[in-house]
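Subject: Protein record for review, amino acid sequence with backbone structure tokens
How to read it: Take the token row as a discrete description of the fold.
Enclosed: The protein record, placed directly beneath this head.
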Amino acid sequence: MSAENDVPTMADPSVEYMGALIRRLRESAGMTLADLGRVAGVSQGLLSQIERGLGNPAYLTLLKIAKALDVPVGRFFDTDEEPTDNRVVRADGRRQLQVTDRGLVYELLTPTMNGQLLVLKVRVPAGYSNESVPFGHHRAEECLFVLEGACYFQIGEDGYTLEAGDSITYQGDQPHWFRVIGDAEAVIIATMTPPVF
């Protein structure tokens, strides 16, 4: 699915918050919708829908918007609410970022993204691959632990197949991508320091 095929959805609190946050960041940067659309390569109409909480943007769209606003995409996890505990994250209280176009669900396992360490639980659907849009633009040390399923990881020129119980560590500024192997979803615990997701 292309980034421009985001489907408007009924507003929910997380989508409304993300839209309001994007609007605040855009206005703080002194940008109009047209400015942000031009820099991000996203249509002004789609940006308007997102800012009004009417569309849940595709992951590639989020990446483009985050880059244009000079913030990490993980900034969209933040909420106006402070965590009730700065140490414990309860299973039913995790902040989520759902990437509906690709079926990804990111859950924040650390209380905030303001510390030196970021830990995410990522549910990745069968058939997922980001080979066409590899990562590799952030300076962080990353460690991924495959909790369920199996994945192929390409880090620079090297490829690795990991199954449940395996982990891999690498520098995030190297080009890297992965795909899920088999018919089942994969569940990955991702750690990153510093948190530049």
